[in-house]
Protein backbone atom coordinates (compact mmCIF):
# COMPACT_ATOMS: atom_id res chain seq x y z
CA UNK A 1 0.00 0.00 0.00
CA UNK A 2 1.52 3.31 -1.09
CA UNK A 3 1.17 6.63 0.70
CA UNK A 4 0.95 9.89 -1.24
CA UNK A 5 0.77 13.40 0.21
CA UNK A 6 -0.44 16.45 -1.71
CA UNK A 7 0.35 19.94 -0.41
CA UNK A 8 -1.10 23.21 -1.68
CA UNK A 9 1.13 25.96 -0.29
CA UNK A 10 -0.89 28.87 1.05
CA UNK A 11 -0.62 32.42 -0.12
CA UNK A 12 -1.65 35.65 1.56
CA UNK A 13 -5.38 34.91 1.59
CA UNK A 14 -5.35 31.10 1.40
CA UNK A 15 -4.12 28.60 4.00
CA UNK A 16 -1.77 25.74 3.27
CA UNK A 17 -3.68 22.48 2.78
CA UNK A 18 -2.36 18.96 3.22
CA UNK A 19 -3.99 15.75 1.98
CA UNK A 20 -2.74 12.22 2.72
CA UNK A 21 -4.02 9.31 0.62
CA UNK A 22 -3.32 5.60 0.57
CA UNK A 23 -3.55 3.74 -2.71
CA UNK A 24 -4.54 0.16 -3.30
CA UNK A 25 -5.07 -1.86 -6.44
CA UNK A 26 -8.38 -3.66 -6.81
CA UNK A 27 -9.57 -6.11 -9.46
CA UNK A 28 -11.99 -4.67 -12.01
CA UNK A 29 -13.43 -6.76 -14.85
CA UNK A 30 -10.41 -8.19 -16.73
CA UNK A 31 -7.89 -5.75 -15.28
CA UNK A 32 -7.14 -3.88 -12.09
CA UNK A 33 -7.55 -0.24 -11.06
CA UNK A 34 -6.01 1.99 -8.44
CA UNK A 35 -8.26 3.38 -5.70
CA UNK A 36 -7.43 6.36 -3.50
CA UNK A 37 -8.51 6.46 0.14
CA UNK A 38 -8.15 9.86 1.79
CA UNK A 39 -6.69 9.24 5.25
CA UNK A 40 -6.01 12.77 6.47
CA UNK A 41 -6.85 16.39 5.63
CA UNK A 42 -5.52 19.51 7.31
CA UNK A 43 -5.47 23.24 6.78
CA UNK A 44 -2.71 25.16 8.53
CA UNK A 45 -3.56 28.52 10.11
CA UNK A 46 -3.44 31.43 7.69
CA UNK A 47 -0.05 33.15 7.79
CA UNK A 48 1.90 30.16 9.12
CA UNK A 49 5.62 30.88 8.46
CA UNK A 50 7.28 28.71 5.80
CA UNK A 51 9.67 26.93 8.23
CA UNK A 52 6.67 25.89 10.35
CA UNK A 53 4.83 24.75 7.22
CA UNK A 54 7.82 22.56 6.30
CA UNK A 55 8.00 21.24 9.89
CA UNK A 56 4.32 20.27 9.86
CA UNK A 57 4.61 18.56 6.48
CA UNK A 58 7.59 16.63 7.85
CA UNK A 59 5.60 15.53 10.92
CA UNK A 60 2.69 14.31 8.79
CA UNK A 61 5.05 12.50 6.41
CA UNK A 62 6.75 10.80 9.36
CA UNK A 63 3.37 9.60 10.61
CA UNK A 64 2.44 8.36 7.13
CA UNK A 65 5.78 6.58 6.82
CA UNK A 66 5.00 4.61 9.98
CA UNK A 67 1.74 3.34 8.42
CA UNK A 68 3.10 1.96 5.15
CA UNK A 69 5.99 -0.05 3.77
CA UNK A 70 6.78 2.49 1.08
CA UNK A 71 8.49 5.83 1.40
CA UNK A 72 5.73 8.46 1.14
CA UNK A 73 5.75 10.46 -2.05
CA UNK A 74 5.11 14.14 -1.49
CA UNK A 75 3.72 16.34 -4.29
CA UNK A 76 4.18 20.01 -3.40
CA UNK A 77 2.74 22.96 -5.32
CA UNK A 78 5.98 24.76 -6.12
CA UNK A 79 4.40 27.41 -8.31
CA UNK A 80 5.24 30.88 -7.02
CA UNK A 81 5.36 31.02 -3.23
CA UNK A 82 5.66 27.22 -2.92
CA UNK A 83 9.29 27.19 -4.02
CA UNK A 84 10.74 28.24 -0.62
CA UNK A 85 8.86 25.43 1.15
CA UNK A 86 9.99 22.95 -1.51
CA UNK A 87 13.59 24.09 -0.97
CA UNK A 88 13.23 23.62 2.80
CA UNK A 89 11.80 20.11 2.37
CA UNK A 90 14.56 19.14 -0.05
CA UNK A 91 17.22 20.34 2.38
CA UNK A 92 16.08 17.82 5.00
CA UNK A 93 16.50 14.07 5.08
CA UNK A 94 13.06 13.15 6.42
CA UNK A 95 12.80 9.93 4.42
CA UNK A 96 10.25 11.42 2.04
CA UNK A 97 10.43 11.53 -1.75
CA UNK A 98 9.63 15.16 -2.65
CA UNK A 99 8.34 16.19 -6.09
CA UNK A 100 7.78 19.83 -7.04
CA UNK A 101 4.63 20.47 -9.08
CA UNK A 102 4.39 23.55 -11.30
CA UNK A 103 0.91 24.47 -12.50
CA UNK A 104 0.48 25.36 -16.16
CA UNK A 105 -2.39 26.07 -18.54
CA UNK A 106 -3.97 23.23 -20.43
CA UNK A 107 -4.90 19.63 -19.81
CA UNK A 108 -1.56 17.87 -19.71
CA UNK A 109 0.62 16.30 -17.07
CA UNK A 110 4.32 16.13 -17.86
CA UNK A 111 6.89 14.57 -15.56
CA UNK A 112 10.21 16.09 -16.56
CA UNK A 113 12.16 14.11 -13.97
CA UNK A 114 11.61 12.20 -10.72
CA UNK A 115 11.71 15.57 -8.95
CA UNK A 116 9.50 17.80 -11.12
CA UNK A 117 6.03 17.68 -12.67
CA UNK A 118 4.22 20.22 -14.83
CA UNK A 119 0.48 19.94 -14.28
CA UNK A 120 -2.33 21.67 -16.14
CA UNK A 121 -5.22 22.81 -13.96
CA UNK A 122 -7.63 21.40 -16.54
CA UNK A 123 -5.94 18.01 -16.11
CA UNK A 124 -6.33 18.23 -12.33
CA UNK A 125 -10.06 19.06 -12.60
CA UNK A 126 -10.86 16.31 -15.13
CA UNK A 127 -8.81 13.81 -13.12
CA UNK A 128 -10.82 14.52 -9.95
CA UNK A 129 -14.09 14.28 -11.89
CA UNK A 130 -13.09 10.92 -13.36
CA UNK A 131 -12.07 9.46 -10.00
CA UNK A 132 -15.26 10.68 -8.29
CA UNK A 133 -17.57 9.44 -11.05
CA UNK A 134 -15.87 6.02 -11.22
CA UNK A 135 -16.01 5.52 -7.44
CA UNK A 136 -12.23 5.28 -7.11
CA UNK A 137 -11.91 8.19 -4.69
CA UNK A 138 -12.93 7.47 -1.09
CA UNK A 139 -13.41 10.30 1.41
CA UNK A 140 -13.58 9.86 5.18
CA UNK A 141 -16.60 10.89 7.25
CA UNK A 142 -14.89 13.85 8.94
CA UNK A 143 -15.58 17.58 9.03
CA UNK A 144 -12.61 18.38 6.78
CA UNK A 145 -14.05 16.09 4.11
CA UNK A 146 -17.31 18.06 4.27
CA UNK A 147 -15.30 21.25 3.71
CA UNK A 148 -13.57 19.54 0.77
CA UNK A 149 -16.95 18.57 -0.70
CA UNK A 150 -18.10 22.20 -0.47
CA UNK A 151 -14.89 23.32 -2.17
CA UNK A 152 -15.56 20.88 -5.02
CA UNK A 153 -19.01 22.45 -5.47
CA UNK A 154 -17.50 25.98 -5.46
CA UNK A 155 -14.78 25.08 -7.99
CA UNK A 156 -15.26 26.96 -11.26
CA UNK A 157 -13.78 27.29 -14.73
CA UNK A 158 -13.63 30.81 -16.11
CA UNK A 159 -12.50 31.80 -19.57
CA UNK A 160 -11.47 35.42 -20.18
CA UNK A 161 -11.77 37.52 -23.36
CA UNK A 162 -8.42 36.17 -24.60
CA UNK A 163 -9.61 32.56 -24.25
CA UNK A 164 -7.37 31.95 -21.23
CA UNK A 165 -8.89 29.56 -18.72
CA UNK A 166 -8.68 29.90 -14.94
CA UNK A 167 -9.66 27.30 -12.37
CA UNK A 168 -10.54 27.73 -8.71
CA UNK A 169 -12.97 29.15 -6.19
CA UNK A 170 -13.63 32.77 -7.16
CA UNK A 171 -16.53 33.76 -4.93
CA UNK A 172 -15.69 35.90 -1.92
CA UNK A 173 -15.10 33.76 1.15
CA UNK A 174 -14.50 30.52 -0.76
CA UNK A 175 -11.30 28.49 -1.01
CA UNK A 176 -9.95 25.72 -3.20
CA UNK A 177 -6.84 24.70 -1.25
CA UNK A 178 -8.13 21.30 -0.09
CA UNK A 179 -9.27 20.47 -3.63
CA UNK A 180 -5.84 21.36 -4.97
CA UNK A 181 -4.06 19.31 -2.29
CA UNK A 182 -6.30 16.34 -3.10
CA UNK A 183 -5.71 16.78 -6.83
CA UNK A 184 -1.95 16.79 -6.25
CA UNK A 185 -2.18 13.56 -4.24
CA UNK A 186 -4.23 11.64 -6.82
CA UNK A 187 -2.76 12.95 -10.06
CA UNK A 188 -1.47 9.61 -11.32
CA UNK A 189 -2.52 5.95 -11.30
CA UNK A 190 1.01 4.58 -11.26
CA UNK A 191 2.15 3.10 -7.98
CA UNK A 192 3.49 6.26 -6.36
CA UNK A 193 5.42 4.79 -3.44
CA UNK A 194 9.18 4.29 -3.63
CA UNK A 195 11.05 1.55 -1.81
CA UNK A 196 14.26 2.61 -0.14
CA UNK A 197 16.25 0.38 -2.48
CA UNK A 198 14.84 2.24 -5.49
CA UNK A 199 16.04 5.68 -4.44
CA UNK A 200 19.28 6.96 -5.90
CA UNK A 201 20.49 9.73 -3.62
Furnish the topology, listing elements before pairings.
Elements: E1 2-8, E2 17-28, E3 31-43, H1 50-67, E4 73-77, H2 82-90, E5 97-104, E6 109-113, E7 116-120, H3 121-133, E8 137-138, H4 143-154, E9 156-159, E10 165-168, H5 177-185
Parallel strand pairs: 1-4, 3-8, 4-5, 5-7
Antiparallel strand pairs: 1-2, 2-3, 6-7, 9-10
Helix pairs in contact: 1-2, 3-5
CATH architecture: 2-Layer Sandwich
Beta strands, count: 10
Instruction: Kindly estimate the percentage of residues that lie in beta strands according to DSSP.
Output: 25-35%
Alpha carbon gyration radius: 16 Å
Overall pLDDT metric = 78
Strand order of the largest sheet: 6-7-5-4-1-2-3-8
The unreliable regions are 169-175, 191-201
Proportion of residues in helical segments: 25-40%
Topology-level CATH name? Nucleotidyltransferase, domain 5
Name the shape in a single word: globular
- Gap between N and C termini: 23 Å
Biggest pleated sheet: 8 strands, mixed
Helix/sheet category: alpha/beta
CATH class: Alpha Beta
Helix segment tally: 5
H/E element string? EEEHEHEEEHEHEEH
Number of domains: 1
Write structural notes for this entry.
- The chain has 201 residues and is of the alpha/beta class.
- It has a single domain, classed as Nucleotidyltransferase, domain 5 (2-Layer Sandwich).
- Helices cover 30% and strands 32% of the residues.
- The protein is built from five helices and ten strands, in the order E-E-E-H-E-H-E-E-E-H-E-H-E-E-H.
- Strands 6-7-5-4-1-2-3-8 form an eight-stranded mixed sheet, sandwiched between helices. Strands 9-10 form a two-stranded antiparallel ribbon.
- Strand 9 and strand 10 form a beta hairpin.
- The two termini are 23 Å apart.
- The C terminus is likely disordered.
